[in-house]
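Quarterly update from the structural biology core.
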Amino acid sequence: MPIQIHRLRIDRLPGLWLALALGLHAPAYATEIAGDSQRTLAIGVIAHDRGPASDHHEDGIDLNLEVQFAPLDRHGSLRPHLGTTLNFVGDTSIAYGGLGFRLRETRQWFADLLLSVAVHDGPLHKDPVGCRLYSDCGFGIRVMPRFGVEIGYRASPAASVSLFVDHMSHKWIIGGENEGLDHIGLRYMRPY
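Predicted structure, tokenized:
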């Protein structure tokens, strides 16, 4: 039996490339916060459909790319971001944009809450019997809320590493099929 290699379905997610282009070329905000006034690029290796609320119906190791912009407020706690999590085995990829909220910060450690809106290329609907019996459902809608947490360590003034967890779902907001999707992994962050 020949091995099939699935390609990323970029034709089903045309806004992905636009979001990346805007994120990489958008101007940083003028707010000057010591150490946080620059844009930051985050690159991550993420386990697909793994996490606290995961049902493990999809698979793969994903690439996460994110641009974090300069903080919007004087205290540096609100930070806009644009990003994407790309799956290379034919499962769901997402593009997202939102805000990060700095929950806690010390000289070397930080913790962020992430709230955003995501657009995905996964199936909207699946077999109703499989959905009812095995909770293997479609996502129901194309644009969904996404939230997450990140705990990071500053290895140097210009580089950080973090543990990253996110969840995309519309449960309790919109009825119908709601597969949901979790990611968990490690990210490297550097100002640019």
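The first helix runs from residue 15 to 25.
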